[in-house]
Amino acid sequence: MSSPDTHTTTPTPLTPGSYLADESALKRAFDLEFNAAIAEARSKLGDATSLAPRVVETAFVNVWQQRGSLTAHEQFKTVLMTEIHHGAARALSRRHAA
Asked: pLDDT per residue over 76-91, tens digit each?
């Protein structure tokens, strides 16, 4: 019996217990949620939609820093959306102060 070729297998889905256990898990989460995260950031930023990629990038970094407390995808999404909301508010505040 041969072992599966690890170079051709598909990535494993994010599952509880392995949630954001390493950078590849973060990459999978990023790939799954990026479009929704960008759309959410744009909706919060009004006419400053060009700031959305930076807001989302910062939100993912903040989530990565909190990864030890995340155990499920729904929890990840909630924390990510909260970070996007706060990040958009900070970006708008900085923009209006300039």
From this structure: 999 999 999 999 999 9
